[in-house]
Design a protein that fits this description.
The chain is α/β, with parallel strands linked by helices. Helix content is 51%, strand content 16%. The strands form three sheets. Strands 3-2-1-4-5-6 form a six-stranded parallel beta sheet. The chain has a three-stranded mixed beta sheet with strand order 7-8-9. The longest helix has 31 residues. The protein is elongated and about 70 Å long. This is 6-phosphogluconate dehydrogenase. It comes from Linnemannia gamsii. Pfam families: NAD_binding_11, NAD_binding_2. InterPro entries: 6-PGluconate_DH-like_C_sf (IPR008927), 6PGD_dom2 (IPR013328), 6PGDH_NADP-bd (IPR006115), HIBADH-like_NADP-bd (IPR029154), HIBADH-related (IPR015815), HIBADH-related_NP60_sf (IPR051265), NAD(P)-bd_dom_sf (IPR036291).
């Protein structure tokens, strides 16, 4: 009952950014608020995307100014640094004009220096606003299932504790960095994403070698399932073997992957650290983008490796299943380079 009273009398929550990730997170939060007879206020740069969550009970703000004026908590989920800079330039301007304090929760994958810059600007305002950098780990289907991993930084213990009430409606676990330094969360996210893209690079190389060596890839998948049963390894290896690398639904694009890997490489350069696996992944992703395929799933980084190994590129789903020497073999849709 205390939480309910607190919500009714204090918290008016706004959400900005309704891409695949943002929509799924916001929808889970809206579902929770609706159970308390409350509603989320949303705004999106592309207005049409707001209608889907409006049908689930969310209020659609007519402008960013309206959302800031009526919210004391604002979540943002945006695609890249440029979008974050553009939106926060307006948010900071409006936040300077209101009389109430606002907790800003930025969930995007951005470069650490940008988070520091935004935090400093927001904290300098007289309204005593708060800025939290809280990146999340997980693909859109994971966000839809409310099983994201959240990372928290910024604010103080009281603010973080208050916000966990909402974070838990969208996540399966929360990692508290316990630091006011919001750049740390961005670095943490880049390190985590490095493990992801590094795994993809390893899988792409290993699967290519297996095919060149006559090792049946379905058998390799069985080994991965038994020895490396991490969800990301299972998902990415299956996509590469089945040829789903050109799919765009619920995936992570080459363009966004290059943005993240570029951030990793820049951070490594700043900190005088070597990141050769990221360098390789960047080269392979850039090769895909240079062919005008930046909207493909980033598992398509396997294709430059296949081309260099004189194998045809994957372009679509597995078509048929054949039997060869007692093995089940997926025959993929391929394209000759």
């Amino acid at each position: 009952m205390n939480n309910l009273l607190h919500l009714k009398h204090q918290d008016r929550i706004g959400w900005i950014g309704l891409g695949e990730m943002g929509y799924n997170m916001a929808n889970n939060l809206q579902r929770y608020l609706a159970s308390l007879h409350l509603k989320l206020t949303v705004w999106n740069r592309t207005p049409a995307k707001s209608q889907r969550i409006h049908r689930h009970g969310a209020h659609v703000a007519k402008s960013l100014e309206e959302l800031v004026a009526t919210s004391n908590i604002i979540f943002t989920s945006l695609s890249n640094d440029a979008a974050v800079e553009e939106i926060y330039a307006q948010l900071i301007d409006y936040a300077e004009q209101v009389e109430h304090s606002i907790i800003f929760v930025e969930t995007s994958t951005i470069y650490p220096a940008l988070a520091t810059q935004l935090s400093q600007k927001i904290l300098s305002l007289p309204q005593k606003h708060s800025y939290l950098q809280c990146p999340v780990f997980g693909r859109p289907p994971v966000a839809k299932a409310a099983k994201l991993i959240w990372v928290t930084s910024g604010g103080d213990e009281k603010v973080i504790k208050k916000m966990c009430l909402y974070f838990t409606t969208m996540s399966k676990s929360i990692i508290h960095l316990k630091t006011p330094d919001v750049a740390k969360a961005c670095s943490f996210k880049l390190v985590g994403n490095f493990f992801v893209v590094g795994s993809m690079e390893v899988l792409a190389e290993g699967l290519t070698l297996a095919e060149k060596s006559g090792v049946h890839q379905e058998d390799v998948l069985k080994f991965i399932e038994a020895f490396f049963p991490a969800p990301s390894w299972l998902e990415y290896s299956r996509k590469m073997v089945d040829g789903h690398v050109s799919g765009k639904d619920s995936g992570f694009s080459v363009d966004l992957g290059l943005k993240d890997v570029g951030h990793m490489r820049q951070l490594a350069k700043e900190k005088d650290a070597l990141l050769p696996t990221a360098d390789l992944a960047y080269t392979h992703l850039k090769s895909v983008q240079d062919k005008g395929l930046g909207d493909q799933d980033w598992t398509s980084l396997i294709n430059p490796l296949r081309t260099a190994s004189k194998l045809p590129s994957m372009t679509g789903a597995a078509k048929v299943v054949e039997h060869d020497e007692g093995h089940t073999v997926a025959t993929n849709s391929v394209r000759e380079e």
